[in-house]
């Protein structure tokens, strides 16, 4: 019999009435009479998982995104049956499931609706591929705002947008272009001063509609797989982001040098060119810790090889660069050249490690080396093999980090820029097609690379950076925003992308400073470096097709501005390192959009430009040419202008004058900002004092400083120093209390304290109940105090 599928097409299908439910430990299962099952799992009082199946049973529960090392637990769980609904209650929220159709609503304990289903879960049978297209729609209230979703080149607030998640090589992408390189299907909703999060853990191509099609409905759907999402309750955005970051995992601490300035280009070769670049940085006294080698260092673009004409002795070159403080980073792509004389290809072929098409032949596609096959990184055996390939690069030649590119995966000269969807993957024992594996291919490559670099770099810490990523990739790798363009619009885009990545759990991110494609003017490059030094990852990178893009490719003004701002980054390294420590320990994003910083202030909900760097520094880039100032919003509180030390009261939009060598930077009143002396590279100098810039506040403020040996794993054995400063400011007195944790002994012995904004003349200084003698004239002229680091309480008393 021939079936007419057009006649049988049913369109959207919906759950019918609940016929039974079961409560098993932390989970409640609801069964409908048309075989839909909803499994609600309470992981924490504020973290609830919703998992649907339409076939009467669940497939194997497997996710690459979830950090399985995290422990979850709730304080209270109660399930009750009412006339029309079932209720699941925790100590934070109530979840109601309607008996008639499985629609859910989540309320706070005061019965205020946080989020509720509109149509709720529904699905459409996929006749072409099998399985379902799974859909979810939720009601959206007036004034509701949406944030997150990772690497999106659009407004920070996603209200009114429709977005797509399918990892795609988008060379020279434009503002609002969809999709891009990364897939982070997690968003934050904010309404009525309450924040919540939704993480839709589905690796198929997914879509999100934030009141674009219908102004009162937000929806998300996937082309296959399960409707499987996590609800996260705040009510503060900080709580949502921290819980999501815990759920999907956090990285380990990078070596301190990784937070320095990096220089890259497609491509630096031969060896003499690399040496010239390194020498010029040292000559101009612009700090730099890393130089990157793009694909031209290889022999015919074959991974794990060297072009001996360009680099006759890579081990010697890497060692000589290291003597001058430069760490060498090399690129590795997934495409393995089809060449019977190429050892990597032969090994993978013999062991059957390449991806295959549905009917058996290997997946073949053109990339830089020409025709290539591609390892299946979803196979744990392949990942282990891949990790072992880094032995020569890392442990023998001395490379300090690896850069994974083209791993969306990108394929040239095909319409969809990637693998055909029939390619098969092992998927860690859950065999599937590329439709399911595509979005996590780059993450699994980065994972395998991370384990290889970590194995052979030990006892030092690894460094890996990737272009493509899925939620959870932050456990293994840093990232950058891909092939941007040298335009003012892209400077605006880069600022928003990095903020968005930070609140999407993937904080160790930066952009190609100056733009990858095309050529920036000196002014654009200067403005970009002024922003880039405040991003977690800081690297200039460009396409060699468009000319030179080193700081000295421009005029003397740009060289001086680059030096000034890179110097500032190196001074702020202990502040940056502390930011990173708080990210890995507590899931606190390193950059904070203003709405994250103060969600109760409606003025922050649509701000794009301003952000908080760490916890206490406010940054607002200059995003237009010929600007000697700009309007910006200063959040509520008191803030000191970093350049003038003038005090500004926040909660308002103001005009800020700037110069070509400045951007608006403010420091929160009461902050204590740690600084190192300027070094040309991390570890160049030994120094005997830590500078602390102390900004007076009439009130209380806490500041922290984390330090350790700057590399290695002793910090995991308690050998770190964590300083907690408590500032108490009064009209006539300033008190600083210091508490130290950890077994690490910092190499310096003194604090040099710069007192900024003191409203009184100093009459007396007391340290740990002892009055100290100080040179009154010199102290009053520069308000600088140098004291032993072992103090616990400092009193500065006014006249």
UniProtKB/TrEMBL annotation:
Domain (Glycoside hydrolase family 31 N-terminal) ranges: 38-209
Q: Tell me, what is an example of a GO biological process annotation in this record?
A: carbohydrate metabolic process
Q: Has the keyword Magnesium been applied to this entry?
A: no
Glycosyl hydrolase family 31 C-terminal domain ranges (all copies): 587-673
SUPFAM superfamilies assigned: (Trans)glycosidases (SSF51445), Galactose mutarotase-like (SSF74650), Glycosyl hydrolase domain (SSF51011)
* Residue ranges of coiled coil: none
InterPro entries (alphabetical) = DUF5110, Gal_mutarotase_sf_dom, GH, Glyco_hydro_31_AS, Glyco_hydro_31_C, Glyco_hydro_31_N_dom, Glyco_hydro_31_TIM, Glyco_hydro_b
Please, which domain of life does this record's source organism belong to?
Answer: Bacteria
Glycoside hydrolase family 31 TIM barrel domain span? 251-579
Q: A Pfam family matched by this chain, by name?
A: DUF5110
Residue ranges occupied by any DUF5110 domain in the UniProt entry? 689-757
The record's GO molecular-function terms, alphabetically, read:
carbohydrate binding; hydrolase activity, hydrolyzing O-glycosyl compounds
UniProt record similarity statement = Belongs to the glycosyl hydrolase 31 family.
Per its record, how is this protein called by name?
A: DUF4968 domain-containing protein
